[in-house]
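Lab meeting prep.
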Amino acid sequence: MLADLAAAEAALPALLQDAAGWRSLRIDYHPPVVERLFRPFGDGGRLSLHRAWPCAPEDALFHPHPWPSAMRIVSGRYRMIVGHGPGLATPPVAATLELAAGSTYTMTDPDAWHAIMPLGGPSLSIMVTGRPWARPQPVEPAAPLRPMDAADAEALLAAFQAALGT
């Protein structure tokens, strides 16, 4: 997945100039609130740009991902807890990390769980994902997620352009 992340990062300067190619979501059914721009990338995967907003550590959603993924923190920092367990039962926390701009990590096992808590302000990150797994999720939104306001999506795209110098 790190090779996929590197390929996405190499393509990103040109993709950031194509505002029409991005779709957006405001993920606010559980803290932390995440703003996401995304587009198809690779073989059935996606490239996503995230802004995650700070939340209380006890409120952060501890969850598995429905797909293999690799991430890079572009700006800001966050605390991340990590666990591992099958099914829907919350596993014990196995590790706590603090990650800063430039940090990368992968989640390539369907039973890997994590939660992030941005520290001191929002964080920006790049995520590339593969094809989804058939893995149930412990928390689903009560209503369909909705797109970001157009102005907020434009501002997030501009934040990534500024952070990446494109």
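Slide two material, second protein:
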Amino acid sequence: MTIELKNVDQLRKAIEAISSFISEGNFRFSENGISFKAIDPSQIVYVIFDMDKKVFEKYSIEPTFVGVDLVEMSKILSRALPNDKLVLDLTDSEMLLRLEGSIRRSFSLPLIDVSDDEVNIPKTSFDASIDIKSKILREALKDASLFGSSVVLRVKDNQLIIEARGSSGTLKSVAKQTKYVSVESKSEVVSKYSLNFLQSIVREADPDKKILLELKSDAPMKVSYKIGASPIEFHLAHMIL
């Protein structure tokens, strides 16, 4: 049972993004690849991540389901050098990770029991979708963080409006239709979210690629993008306006 991955950065970024919210979780290894689904302890963010077996140089593993400490896994993957290859094996009690490059480094993580209660995410018919360059969104959220810990997203007249308010001031950013921003909406939308959570969600997105935001007034938001070739999506609970 062996998995080999030359582009360790893809997996590192995904685990980094997930571990911002979820400290431990279950990976499912199937004949199609690796998948991960979990909700954070505060039940604010639900994460879905898939990594197709085609991404790997070698993928030979029996279908299985294992729980690991994501924070520790993230620390290990962060030690990968640019030309390292990741070799991953599983035993009955451990996940074995080797980083092979100029030197070979071997790490092991004990497998843990993690509750796998099925989380039912209600199907939402979104009223607006925004395809926006990651760098633009991240800069707008940095602006918002000058004044508040929450952010209001509005979609009006095919524009995305980002607002933040605090005792020291207010922010209003307007993103109009350009080659970097595409807005589609059935109706006007307004909803409020945790700024810290949203910034953590988009942190690992490629700054030159686009992020898809799907919105409905006073409803959870779906945020999705790709890390390399692998899709990751987050469902972020809304706050009361």
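Talking points for slide two:
The chain has a mean pLDDT of 94.
The two ends are 50 Å apart (CA to CA).
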